[in-house]
Amino acid sequence: MNMATTTRNAHAASAKIGIREITRRLNSALGATLVASLAGSKDPKISYKWARADGPEPNYDAVRRLQFAHTQWLAITASEGEHVARMWFIGSNPLLDYDTPVDAIRENRFKEAAAAAAAMVEDGFVG
Q: How many domains does the chain have?
């Protein structure tokens, strides 16, 4: 499967679930501290609160970052597996000027992060 198809499928899967479920899944996959960081929060435990049915709603920018991160997570895990996807999110990546994808997502560098994810899926390039 090519990256465009993989990304479309991942985006569709992310769009079908709510932000609380996206947050729960990312918390499980990456840990709450990384999820809060990529969402742009200084509170390392906020993603636990966002995941609760009675918790606060993340702001608009955090929702965009969480949805984007979840789409990249799904695309990479479909191709490379969960371990590689975790390493991709936290590893220094030369395609992102040696920042981590977590940092790039927090900084709204979605096009750059998507290109780095595509390189991972298409070429097996972790960074």
A: 1
The first and second tokens of residue 80, run together, are: 């490379």
Q: Tell me: the pLDDT tens digits for 68-88?
A: 999 999 999 998 999 999 999
CA dist., res. 14 & res. 106, Å (int): 18
Cα–Cα distance measured from residue 32 to residue 113, given in angstroms and rounded to the nearest whole number:
20
How many angstroms separate the CA atoms of 96 and 94, rounded? 5
Q: Is 59 within 8 Å of 41 (Cβ atoms)?
A: no
The overall pTM is greater than 0.85: yes
How far apart, in Å, are the Cα atoms of 47 and each of 10, 28, 30, 51, 59? 21, 11, 11, 6, 12
Q: Which domain holds residue 30?
A: 3-123
Where are the alpha helices (H) located in the chain, listed in sequence order?
3-15, 19-30, 32-39, 46-51, 60-80, 82-90, 101-106, 110-123
Task: Enter the tokens of residue 96.
Answer: 């992102």
Nearest-angstrom CA–CA distance, 71 and 77: 10
